[in-house]
Amino acid sequence: MTRPDTPFETSLLALAEQVEATLSELLDARPRDGEIARPGRLIEAMHYGALNGGKRLRPFLVMESARLFGGDEKTALRVGCALECLHSYSLVHDDLPAMDDDDLRRGKPTVHIAYDYATAILAGDSLLTYAFDIIAAPETDLPDSARIALVLELARAAGIGGMAGGQALDLAAEKAPPDEAGIILLQSMKTGALLRFACEAGAIIAGRPVEDRARIRSFGEVIGRAFQLADDLLDLTSDAITLGKAAGKDAAKGKGTLVALKGRDWAEVELTRLVDEAHEILAPYGRAAEPLAKAARFIAQRKN
Amino acid sequence: MTRPDTPFETSLLALAEQVEATLSELLDARPRDGEIARPGRLIEAMHYGALNGGKRLRPFLVMESARLFGGDEKTALRVGCALECLHSYSLVHDDLPAMDDDDLRRGKPTVHIAYDYATAILAGDSLLTYAFDIIAAPETDLPDSARIALVLELARAAGIGGMAGGQALDLAAEKAPPDEAGIILLQSMKTGALLRFACEAGAIIAGRPVEDRARIRSFGEVIGRAFQLADDLLDLTSDAITLGKAAGKDAAKGKGTLVALKGRDWAEVELTRLVDEAHEILAPYGRAAEPLAKAARFIAQRKN
């Protein structure tokens, strides 16, 4: 894992390589116990959807949170990869014509363009299912109580009351723009839930008590809000080449964002405030939390 | 649970009522711990997709297998409902235009017709995720080791190497009809995996050793083959009103089935042989296994 004085981008890139190597192994074609065969085209589409040059921010948060609390690095990497499978499923399904209808993701054709619509649905379904497989498998070297806690928290972060529910609110927002409270709820579910889980997962892996879980989860909450604000600013100001996907789509669809509602100046100030708040939450952990503190700054300042 | 001398259809109907009442409670709108809100339209679409008059054969198998091995009834009902959520997700996604493109399921408009395409994708995603939530939740009153075993087996039965993989093979079969071995593999993954899981889950719930898990799983394997054979015969001989969905679709798509390959006479004889084989597997359990024995006969003889 990362030494506290390593520049953030260097740490993130190094971690991304580890994540991709592990994801690649996990998405190997050989069936595991209890499986019969892994159809080639489906495994390929899952590979394509998951190994797409992502920043691997969520696994980074899992691993750095685990490191902070003294959790095992290899286990945190596996859990980070499970979370990345789940995140990838959400992108594959979100890009579908019936949803956001995006042809490009990080400058490459989306899964339903590179393969076909049906394969993209199944690849998403399989990545979602595989996230739970990875966590529950005996190779995730944790007490059963920790594995079951991770499964439950991930299911709640991803399901009706979390990410998928947020996505449903997002669809509704195209027809009836939500007010400020509605936007905050939507974003807290759609984007925030997985970031909160990523941070809390590290504390679960390390077997820490509820207070640590709650504190690091609240850090996840704050950086989730920063993440979404930065995203909304980028959607407004960036171009498709920098962003690697179509820009200005939210505005074109009339989707309410806090930036649209309260202005760019407010958003810039709020971003700075959120980074400060995130740093305050980490203060009791001192210098050991430096990588997470840098992650908060990176999230607010990222350009794509 | 069922007394050994109750007629099978009566037992199945009684169990279906219990399953629907429990599913309805589980799909209540109130958010659980770790959830923020449950969007109304999404919960409704999940309800619509899961509470659709299904026979609840899979929960029946979970519950009767648990009863046979002395597992707790209430726990088996919860796990059966989790499995039914997962089964329902597969139907919602299979019915989508990009997949089987079905407008009717059990005589009612499918989810993407009753709601919309995007909501159907999300309702399926959410039902799949919720299956793992239900099993991992503390209300599933089992040791952590049993809950994690159920999560792992379900993920493997449902994912790349199980049901979703079988669905991918099914898509490929439309372009290049598989040979006999290919059809058996496809069906063992697409239909068989969840039925094997249903039977094994009862033994896991009851905390039984590997030998019992393997024996009841092999019963699931055999009835899975009978189920598929009966399904293929029905697709060939039934009409849409009896079936509650479009009939003759597999044949029209040129999908290979064992019935098409080896003839209806062979299929009738094979069905009888499979029921006998299923009964032989249950023989060591004596009269206590009567409900499962009846289930095998019902699966082979069902008319829709």
Provide the descriptors you would attach to this structure in a database record.
mainly alpha, 71% helix, 15 helices, 304 residues, Farnesyl Diphosphate Synthase
List the helices and strands and how they pair.
The structure is a homodimer of 304-residue chains.
Chain A: H1 8-26, H2 40-50, H3 57-69, H4 73-94, E1 104-105, E2 108-109, H5 111-114, H6 117-136, H7 144-158, H8 163-175, H9 180-205, H10 210-237, H11 240-243, H12 249-252, H13 258-262, H14 264-282, H15 290-301
Antiparallel strand pairs in A: 1-2
Helix pairs in contact in A: 1-4, 2-6, 3-4, 3-9, 4-6, 4-9, 7-9, 8-9, 9-10, 10-14, 10-15, 14-15
Number of domains of chain A: 1
CATH architecture assignment name of chain A: Orthogonal Bundle
Number of separate helices of chain A: 15
CATH fold title of chain A: Farnesyl Diphosphate Synthase
Approximate strand percentage of chain A: under 5%
Major sheet attributes of chain A: 2 strands, antiparallel
Largest interface: A-B, 63 and 63 residues
CATH class type of chain A: Mainly Alpha
Q: Would you tell me the overall average pLDDT of chain A?
A: 93
Q: Give, in order, the helices and strands of chain A.
A: HHHHEEHHHHHHHHHHH
Strand count of chain A: 2
Low-confidence stretches of chain A: none
